[in-house]
Amino acid sequence: MKKQILIVDDKQSLSALVAQFLHQNFEVITKKNGMEAMLWLQDSHLPDLIITDLEMPKMDGLELIKRIKESGFFAEIPVMVLSCKYTSKDRIECLKAGATDYMVKPFNPEELLIRLENILQKSIA
Fold it and tell me: Start and end of every Response regulatory domain (predicted)?
């Protein structure tokens, strides 16, 4: 059975591109912002990993990470940030909030796949 990945990004072209790249190895779900993602999670969905952008309307990626990690039920889901924000301050803020990894757009799809596989291997162990 394929692992499920939730992609949260308001740029549909980018989330579609990532989903297309990942769909061979994973079941991919996409949501447009953190609010949609939280509602989907609260509707009894439990993905194996979440990829989120940071800059989105309604609820940004940092707030989404905080809410996931503060909730007892979703706290163990690994979260990868995929963002245009590239400063060390941005990365540190996300990692402190509980993000598992952080990649900057534009990204190498092969590197993304390797990082996702590594995260999923560790979450099984």
Answer: 4-120
Q: What is the CATH number of the domain that holds 62?
A: 3.40.50.2300
Q: Residue 6 pairs with which residues in a beta bridge? A: 29, 50
CB 15 within 8 A of CB 21: no
Please tell me the distance from the alpha carbon of residue 47 to that of residue 68, in angstroms, as a whole number. Answer: 12
Owning domain of residue 89: 3-124
Measured CA to CA, the distance from residue 44 to residue 10 in angstroms comes to 22
Convert the pLDDT of each residue in 8-34 to its tens digit: 999 998 899 999 999 999 999 999 999
> What is the number of domains present in the chain?
1
Rounded CA-CA distance 57/49 in Å is 21
For residue 56, give both structure tokens: 């989105």
Written as one letter, the residue type at 46 is L
Please tell me whether the overall predicted TM-score, pTM, comes out greater than 0.85 for this model.
yes
